[in-house]
Design brief:
Low-confidence stretches: none
Distance between the termini: 51 Å
Structural class: alpha/beta
Mean pLDDT: 93
Helix content: 25-40%
Number of helices: 22
């Protein structure tokens, strides 16, 4: 029985070999018709025996190309047009659905084999790619994804590449970055002063030799420049730290193979799958003790951030140098935008000895993604290369809404066609350069996805850089409380619409009472939220200064809780800070520059300082991260005891009083109890008091929904997340966590946008 179907597929279907895949299915099942792209979809007209058409549709659903992601497939019966063959037609410029741009993908196995085959014409070609791998997002200048709309447009294909490109049976059919040594980009090596030294093969050989000698080489990657050095040469690692002004923050390591990774880190089956996936992110792994990896790779931590070589150039560097591991960190000063423009190389000339670059332009810079796994939990610590941009379908009308995110770990989100589009990780908006970088990316996304904003969602914090951006956009502004955004971000990701409880643990958020929140028990949804409980407030001496110097935060808590004994305790803990302790005492007594804060992040900071783990933070969250690292070896510590605490009712709120716990922690420290014991009990105390706060709220108000979402940056701590979830579930609660959206401030924009949509809908009805 003959029939004809019209099939329209939307999602990530451009730049992934979808049309050749459809063509191959049509040939396999002896079908006729056409396939073509427009700006947003793949459109198929297929004719033939109904049984064969059904087989084709089944294959489309169940086994699409590995880089594709089908969001929607519309199938309609249509009239036959009498096609004699099956054709791939040229792309069209129309389309209204949201296009899902393909992410940059790690080199595939087939291309890797060809690159190391001396008989292949792409032998040792640093830019080898096909429809299943290579640059995508970073080189696209416009839609649809065709070669003229990429930074490869100026590289004219040779006749051999042109034949492959036009051959529907070839895996490079319509691979837009296709090239070979005859027609592709050139590799070149520059001195640190910018002098051209060598090109192509010779440039690679010299760069590899310099890495072996302990030199620092700036390498142009897929999304920007990296600073690279031999990871086992401690002096070179220290030099990178000095030039980047990054004294303590962990540096990413690229290992030449998965076998190499297993020599230095414990790797589970799930972690290996992520390490070797098409995305190839940095994966945070537990370090094997007593390996020869220098301690200054990740000072004070028992973990390493490891990735595998994901570009052809990376593989060639390892092959040529014979090295096992390279430090591979972004080539920019700490806190500055990622460097990706070739005409700005003067910015890194003082940070490296040589520059290994090429003339394929990067249009959209992007950082390496960072993920972490702990059994059932998959966490994005940085959502970027390989995973973004990402579309999140929603049932809400989000058209014309832009959410600007937070100041730390910033991302923005835009709404169109019942779809939320999240940007890659931007970073901290702490200076003019980062703010300009942020606005450039925001403008590009608006143009790219043809967004005309009507509403701007921002954080309520009046000093966030995003507030100034919103004022310049000159649209209606919707202010969203920081922790409400965290709450709804996790709800929306888990498709929860009915009001639920949220435990939000993070560092800093501007509260509705103008105090600093960050240890919250909330109840509500995108439309409305109420505060059920929180950590008691304590003064934060100097505000931002106490965040950067956690010992000040600890002293502030101690002097506030024990006005008489506290000064003695503070001097015992911090004997070299006597003068500063006197000043902080005066600040608290007189109420000068001591904002009140009740946050999980600041509580972690204080305990970290009391235990002597981190007195000064050189990067955001350092004190909490180093304290949490002690829990990496703890699998079952929940029965190790807790410290005393008190839950008291203040009006309608449950308030957690941590005074007794803090006092006992100080006493145990002064009595030289092991840090591991104190830290385990500290974590258990946070878990127990949160669970008890939730239970008390539900007992007081039985009508509350017993679903709980966990969000906020403190839940990057695997032990805290795992045990909190387990204990809540044991007490009859349904617990939901983040999977595809970061739990930290990188997920704030997602929640902001959904809340703004709810408020707009509420207002209109």
């Amino acid at each position: 029985m003959l029939k004809a179907l019209s099939i329209k597929i939307s999602g990530r279907i451009q730049g992934v070999g979808f049309r050749p895949f459809v063509y191959s299915l049509a040939k396999k099942y002896e079908l006729k018709g056409t396939v073509k792209n427009n700006k947003s979809s793949v459109i198929i007209h297929v004719e033939g025996h109904s049984k064969n058409i059904s087989k084709m549709v089944k294959d489309l659903r169940l086994s699409p190309p590995r880089l594709s992601k089908i969001i929607e497939m519309q199938i309609e019966q249509t009239a036959s047009k009498g096609y004699k063959e099956f054709y791939i037609e040229p792309s069209q410029q129309d389309g209204h659905a949201v296009p899902l741009v393909s992410s940059d993908a790690a080199i595939c196995t087939q291309c890797l084999e060809e690159m190391f085959d001396p008989l292949n014409r792409r032998y040792q070609h640093p830019f080898i790619n096909c429809t299943q791998c290579g640059p995508r997002y970073s080189i696209i200048t416009n839609q649809p994804y065709d070669r003229p709309n990429t930074t490869m447009k100026n590289f004219i294909m040779c006749s051999d590449c042109q034949k492959e490109y036009e051959d529907p049976s070839n895996r490079r059919h319509h691979a837009q970055p296709i090239c070979c040594p005859e027609c592709g980009p050139d590799l070149y090596l520059l001195s640190h002063t910018g002098e051209l030294l060598e090109r192509n093969k010779k440039a690679l050989e010299i760069a590899a030799e310099k890495l072996k000698q302990g030199k620092i080489v700036a390498v142009k990657g897929i999304g920007g420049y990296h600073l690279a050095c031999d990871a086992f040469q401690e002096r070179a690692v220290s030099q990178i730290r000095q030039t980047k002004n990054r004294p303590e923050r962990p540096l990413a390591v690229m290992a030449k193979s998965i076998e190499t990774v297993k020599r230095f880190c414990y790797v589970s089956t799930e972690e290996e799958q992520v390490l070797t996936s098409a995305e190839m992110p940095i994966v945070v792994l537990k370090r094997i003790k007593d390996t020869r990896m220098p301690a200054n790779i990740s000072p004070g931590l028992s973990t390493l951030g490891i990735m595998l070589p994901y570009s052809p150039l990376h593989h060639l560097l390892f092959k040529e140098s014979g090295l096992d591991c390279l430090v591979m960190t972004s080539a920019n000063l700490s806190g500055m935008p990622i460097l990706y423009k070739d005409d700005n190389l003067h910015q890194i000339q003082g940070m490296c000895d040589f520059i290994l670059s090429h003339n394929r332009k990067i249009y959209l810079p992007i950082d390496d993604s960072v993920v972490r796994l702990d059994g059932q939990h998959f966490q994005f610590l940085r959502r970027a290369r390989g995973y973004t941009p990402e579309l999140f379908p929603t049932s809400r009308n989000v058209e014309g809404i832009i959410a600007l995110g937070a100041n730390q770990k910033n991302t923005f989100a835009i709404g169109t066609n019942k779809t939320v589009i999240m940007s890659p990780h931007i970073g901290e908006l702490d200076n003019e350069e980062m703010n300009n970088f942020y606005e450039e990316k925001l403008t590009h996304f608006k143009d790219w996805f043809q967004i005309e904003e009507k509403y701007i969602a921002i954080d309520k914090h009046p000093a966030f850089a995003t507030a100034a951006v919103a004022s310049r956009l000159n649209k209606e502004i919707i202010r969203v409380q920081h922790h409400h955004a965290h709450h709804v971000s996790c709800m929306e990701e888990n498709h929860i619409d009915q009001p639920c409880i949220g435990i939000i643990l993070d560092g800093t958020g501007f509260g509705d009472d103008s105090h600093i929140w960050g240890f919250e028990c909330l109840y509500g949804n995108a439309y409305v939220v109420e505060r059920l409980g929180h950590l008691s407030y304590t003064p934060l001496p100097g505000g931002e200064k106490a965040i950067k110097e956690p010992w000040r935060n600890a002293v502030g808590m101690i002097l506030y809780h024990w006005p008489h004994e506290g000064k003695y305790l503070a001097n015992q803990l911090f004997p070299d800070k006597t003068k500063e302790i006197n000043i902080i005492e005066s600040m608290i007594k007189n109420g000068l520059n001591v904002p009140l804060a009740g946050t999980c992040g600041r509580l972690y900071d204080a305990v970290s300082a009391i235990l002597g783990i981190c007195l000064h933070s050189t990067y955001e969250g350092e004190a909490a991260i180093k304290l949490s690292d002690y829990m990496e070896d703890i699998d079952d510590g929940i029965n190790s005891g807790t410290y005393p605490y008190n839950l008291k009712k203040e009006e309608s709120l449950v308030e957690i009083d941590f005074t007794m716990a803090l006092y006992q922690i100080i006493q145990e420290k002064l009595q030289n109890e092991p840090n591991e014991k104190i830290i385990t009990k500290f974590h258990n105390t946070i878990i127990r008091c949160c669970v008890e706060m939730v239970q008390r709220s539900v007992n007081d108000r039985p009508e509350l929904n017993k679903s709980v979402v966990l969000s906020g940056g403190s839940f990057q701590n695997n032990y805290l997340l795992r045990e909190m979830k387990r204990l809540l579930m044991e007490n009859g609660f349904n617990v939901y966590t983040h999977k595809n959206v970061p739990c930290h401030d990188g997920g704030i924009s997602f929640g902001q946008l959904v809340i703004a949509a709810a408020k707009i809908n509420q207002k209109s009805t």
